[in-house]
Amino acid sequence: MRDSFGREIRYLRLSITDRCNLRCRYCMPDEGVPPTAHDDLLRYEELLRVAAAAVSLGIDRFKVTGGEPLVRRDCTDFIRALKALPGVKQVTLTTNGLLLPPLLDELCAAGLDGVNISLDTLDNAQYQRLTRRARTADEVLDAVRLCAARLPTKINAVLLPETADQMIPLAELTQTLSVDVRFIERMPLGAAQTDQMASADHALARLRVRWPQLEPITEPRGNGPARYFHAPALRGCIGMIDAVSHSFCDRCNRLRLTCTGLLKPCLCYDEGVELRPLLRGGADDETLRDAIRAAILQKPAAHCFQQRENITEHKSMNQIGG
Ligand code: SAM
Ligand code: SF4
Question: Of 55, 218, 236, 274, which one has the fewest beta carbons inside 10 Å?
Answer without folding.
Answer: 218
